[in-house]
User: Fold this.
Amino acid sequence: MRRKFVGSASAPTFCETLAAIGTADTPAEPISGFTFPCVTLHITFPKSTPAAVPTQNAISPSATIFNVVTLVIVYYGSKQIDLGNLAIGQMMAFMQYAMQIIMAFLMIAMIAIMLPRASVAANRVYEIIETKPTIQDPTNPVALDESKKGLVEFNHVSFAYPGASEPVLKDIDFVAKPGQTTAFIGSTGSGKSTLLQILAGTLTPTSGEVRVNGRVAALLELGAGFNNDFSGRENVYLNASLLGLTKAEVDNRLDDILAFADIGHFIDSPVRSYSSGMLVRLAFAVQAQINPEILIVDEALAVGDAKFQAKCFARLKQLKANGTSILFVSHATEQIVTHCDSAILLNDGELMLQDSPRVVVNHYLDLLFGKSPKENAEKASLSDSIDQAAKGEQERLDREMASEQQPLSENATPAWQYGDAG
Assistant:
């Protein structure tokens, strides 16, 4: 749309300039109108969707002040320009200086708002610094008896979460001997994971005494102790440092850790890109290669493939031969029967039985299926399946141990390269 200038031939006035501004025909609706001395200015915005309304309503106070001051300056400035008392450039310069003055006042106001917050934060930091730790070093520490290294003792241990009406663990009493694998079995919610967290030190028992002799390595939760933004290699050093190893010690064992994890070039990628299987490979490699006196494994191997599980159990067998005490939680009864020396049955937070793995598994099946004729038949069928699975588990372990003792020659071709499952 064309506009006709009325006035001086050399230059249009401010109002004539505003009047000459055309607007395109767009699907917009006028929100408000503002009348200058010589022209009515319609402020238009595109039609808003319902989702955009809260955003438009959340205009900050500083933006509101800027908009109001700008409109006031334009309004009165246009009057003075129309009367010939003020040039457009002077009004624009005045507007810039006014904005700088307003900005200075807003910054002062922001400082006044933030100072109380900063004071509260500083007081909180001071409180944290001055707070005395609740965990105190023993006044008369007892030197570790080398003959008891790897020994785990629970003496009448109970645990309840704050505010809970019922304890999770009730009067748990057992001993896990060095050089043995002790399994914990029970239905979901029986307290197995809570018991292992107490052993690892992430939970404190409500009553009773826990004695742990030696360094503890734990696979309690997939990815625990890892930083998702670090690479796998960086997380090896981070996780090992949490277990008390120095950088020099990790450097000496790094090749063994990487070879056991066997995740290839992914070792230099962030662990957030890892699959669950790759994550447990790396975590187990770190925990198992540091030769701990006590190793805790809580269902972590369930995400690994069959070959990696066999590799892990072969490593556990080596650790056990070196005197490591292994505490193992799994619902895979065939693994418990095959790899464990003793087992503990938990039910509703109580220790019901500690005996050989086969005896404990039978009692566990009784809890699950009962003793009616029909349920006994189901239990017998499941027991046969467990025996067959345990036999297959032992065969896989024997093959893995044999493959480690007889490495491939330089000219040998690995079977897995061509998909040979045997």
In short: The chain has a mean pLDDT of 74. The chain has twelve helices and eleven strands.
